[in-house]
Amino acid sequence: MIATGISQDLKTSIHLIRTQSYINGQWVDAASGEKFDVINPATGEVIASVTDMDRAEVKKAIDAAHAAWPAFRDLTAHERAGLLKRWYALILQHKEELATLMTMECGKVLSESLGEVEYGAGFIEWFAEEAKRIYGDVIPSHTRDRRLVVIKQSIGVAATITPWNFPLAMITRKVGPALAAGSPVIVKPATETPLTALALAALAEQAGFPPGVYNTVATSKNSEVGLELCENKKVRKLSFTGSTAVGKLLMSQCAPSLKKLSLELGGNAPFIVFDDADVDAAVQGTIASKFRNSGQTCVCANRIFVQEKVYDEYVEKLVQAVSALRVGNGLDKTIQIGPLISEKGMAKVKNHLEDAVAKGAKIVEGGNHLTGLFFQPTVLTDVTTEMIMTREEIFGPVAPVTRFKTEEEAIQLANDTDYGLAAYFYSRDVARCWRVAEALESGMVGINDGMVSTVVAPFGGIKESGLGREGSKYGMDYYLEIKYLCFGNIK
């Protein structure tokens, strides 16, 4: 179904717009006839009205996926890989259209959206190849008359709940290994960004996935739909990216059926600049890490710690770089900072900023709400650990800078958080690089690099930043069951 009244800016991607959900190989409306609007955060315009599915309809999707599971898991790895490779090629073929749609939905600038399409497609290609490498083991037997074998099998129906800030890559990073392993999927995208998810489903349909294997359910009824995905015993795996509070809730709801979980939750990433760092490189790394997607990523630099010897130089150069960032509609290719996603997000940024200033922080660049959902890129100095923004994700284009004296102090400050998703530091001392990397309590560490995400490396955190890893060879394990076979009485 093609939406009517869609913004003129979507001319290049109009044929990928879907406003129905995709269940069991069919595009369907909600039985209630209810819909919800998808809003462009840059303009406030309604892009499209999307069908609003409820719990009963999600159950139908789960039933369809469960029914499709036996035939799909019995395909050879080569056959499943072929489907994934066709889907990968279609995603790249429609790269410009998907990126435009993504920018319209979530506000990120077009260059970042194009990068996300390529990054997200990369997971499909990677796991198409990994499908052929789901190896088992032969274990040397403890007796002469036994043979011991380990095989890996598809876990079953996999449900994915994805966030708005990476509406394409967070889907492909989850469904790539599931489909490669032979598990049908249910995709529940964020209410803010269902159109990118539904466009992916349209391309999956073109790739030839059998009915029931790939399902996408658009809904604003997040609590009741999430509860069905957690409580339904036919769902054997749940993967969620989002806040720690919601992750804990989903974990408790999954407990009665002991689902296998992957939870990629909140972050509070430290970004440390030591006095032996290349300050220019550190500033560029800060811009890449802190201001990507207007500061709305879980791996953004949230707390910036700079050693006192280079503090003034770093702040001066950071202010110069931040002042050059242009704010506006992400469809304009000259723009580097798009809008925040919502009024709630804007209120949070303002609250964090007001709290910091009240407690002694100084605004040395920016600090203004411009118009609509646009906020001026901001740099704060004299930030202390008593301020809210050092305890919670800012999720906006605000860079708080704190001075430190010693390496030991930097590590203590960095680890003084309940979270442990990503961490970054800059130093040219090899010994220090090893010491600090090993001491940081984080699932991922960028050393002289502000962008660590890649298809080939494991993504995930420790402490309250979640469970499990996504991407890389490790990502496949979370969609497989290990089975031990003991052949006895062999004479």
Automatic annotation (TrEMBL):
Key word Cell division present: no
Pfam families: Aldedh
Entry keyword set: Oxidoreductase
Aldehyde dehydrogenase domain ranges (all copies): 27-484
InterPro entries assigned: Ald_DH/histidinol_DH, Ald_DH_C, Ald_DH_CS_CYS, Ald_DH_CS_GLU, Ald_DH_N, Aldehyde_DH_dom, Aldehyde_DH_Superfamily, Succ_semiAld_DH
Active-site residue list: E264
Keyword Oxidoreductase attributed: yes
Family membership noted in the UniProt record: Belongs to the aldehyde dehydrogenase family.
Protein name listed in UniProt: NADP-dependent succinate-semialdehyde dehydrogenase
